[in-house]
Amino acid sequence: MRNAKEQALQNVEHVAEGVAAETLPEGKLFEIAQSIGDKRLEELNVADTTCGYCAVGCRFDLYSDGEEVLAARPTAEEDAPVNGISTCVKGKFGYDFVNSDDRLTTPLVRDENGEFRTASWAEALDRVAEGLGAIKDDHGGEALSVIASSKATNEENYLMGKFARQVLGTNSVDNCNRLCHSSTVAGLAQTYGYGAASISTEDLELADCILLTGSNTTEAHPVLATRIKQNVRDGANLLVFDPREIQIAEYATQYSRVQPGYDAVWINGITRYIIDNDLYDESFVAERTSGFEELAESLQEFTPERVEEVTGVPHEEIVSAAETIADADRCVFGWTLGLTEHSHGTENVLAMANLAAVTGNLGKPGAGVSPFRGQNNVQGGGGDMGPLPDNFPGYQDIADDEVRAKFEDAWDCEISPDYGHYTTQMFLAADRGDLRGMYIIGENSALSEPGVNHAEEVLEELEFLVVQDLFLTETAQYADVVLPACSFVEKRGTFTNTDRTVQMVKQVMEPKGDSRPDWEILQDLATRMGREWDYDSTAEIMEEVNSLTPLYGGVTHERVDSEGGLQWPCWDEDHPGTERLYEEEFNTDDGLAHLQGVGFSEPAETPDDEYPFTLTTGRVLYQYHTGTMTHREEGIMQYTPSDFVEINPRTAAEYGIETGDMVRVESRRGSVTVPAQVTDRVGPESVFAPIHFAESAINRLTDEEHLDPQAATPEFKVSAVRIAPADVDPGTPAGDTGTSTGDD
Ligand code: SF4
After folding, report:
1. pLDDT tens column, 272-292
2. Ligand 1 pocket member 51 (CB < 6 A)
């Protein structure tokens, strides 16, 4: 079999022979030819659009012959502010899912035997209106919930929030941000005013120091990693604090392995050292912050001895990191879910926000905080557009009478001032019988929720479940009605990326089969349930967003398209957008950053004799979340065809485990069996597993009950587990693997 390079070179020859190859920019021929073979470029549809995988927000031209996506070609540097001419393997090659035979092309309803059968849109939507309507009539709208989709466009997510509140009468509407960065939003909003990145992506290249924690950047945000690596190559310092010695650590000036679950402790240790040694930015603290004295006092409990003992980070490493940050003129603090997916994730973020503020690293080029968001549109669709139980679009509090009156007036409905259930709480509420029906859009909760054994029971027991998705996912298999949605290449709208840039998403193919854009489905359903929605386009929906959402006041489709993207806040049509937050003042009542100390806290579950290891979970480069898209990519599947568990060589030797052996991993909530990868990437006290496959469903091991008290984020990053070769009882102590050792 020819390898990929040989295949690509062959395709290049095809293109060079017959196609308008001379029109292709130098260096791009290889990539495009690899995908389009000998088809003539001018016969193809092309759309300049935004990637539908992760929130880096890469832009490129997508080519289609109307049947399938044939190629993604990075656009000119000036048209792609985030990625220039780079993309990662998913953005470049990950499109087989669009035309997969597994796509849902017609609605499905349950027949009298409980089996799915195909149905017309009219029948399916009637069934949904009837099912949700009956629960609303009998138990009130609060008995219903909506899980919105961070893969869908801003405009569609705006409608999902409106549908929940106006049509169903519930504030229980939320999305996957609850499982990842909602603790970031809570922590940053309390300190600075906005729960978002303060920087632009280019600041990663302007910084002279970058602190990364809980971020497997090269695998989860590859294009951001490239920009960081370029900056390090040019002389910037990179500090990586992480339980795993991930690939980006190879580029680091300093890598420190931390014990999972104690991030606020080592961050506080650094901040204490900086303050105690007068290394902080005195004028910034005096002029732009409040609460400094109280913060300094609260940090005294984080003595060098205690920090080292609890986190495993030697004091010298705390000192060197503190001095590097303090010496830097411009430092960026970047993180992902290793910092946030904890039962005290908000405290971790507050600690990081304190550190950035006392060192004066906010509101100037090359300095600031950057939570790297995950799903392509979790910043916009999952947050800004307000499919949230406590906020309307633009983070406007539903408990605020004036704000609520504005939306009640615009949407012609009454809205309760009481917050609804967060996603994680919805599953606990349904267990109690407080929730009876769910409408889940583009979210695979049966794999992504913590403690999926529990989630499966809840989905099974719901009185009515409607799922809207591209595929018959593990979640959709529990549904009463399944509605076929279409992907981002089959519709038009906007996504907002991790640095608050709103960018166009453009259609390059007709929807497959009878699948439809989410906004059209919602519109038909709302109309069936008594509300006359009459949008002609997503541009028209965005106009409604503009009128109700000050942050997006000037973000029209026309401007986003012609200006190549707009960063919020963008208050009106004359406002240029905001490259960097907090240049003049913070978005708080007094314009100051509100420092607040966080005390010592532990993970909800710590290792013990019975479950002696800490499991952390995460992602790999070649897969994406629960795999609904990437599992349909033959080429991508060759690289990571299953989940696995990383085990330190010392631990593996104790248990007689080698790479490739099947290993049972067990927590108090469940058990999974996966192949081992023996590697010193993890320490001897920890194991790591990715979360991408239903066959292993790693979230059977995680904990659905212990949530962050402020943000309701689950503790995906710390679960106490035990391990054993698959044919041995996991309760068997290490060294007694059940085989004869010769000592018998
Ligand atoms: Fe798409 Fe993210 Fe890869 Fe860019 S880095 S191509 S946005 S998946």
Report:
1. 999 999 999 999 999 999 999
2. yes
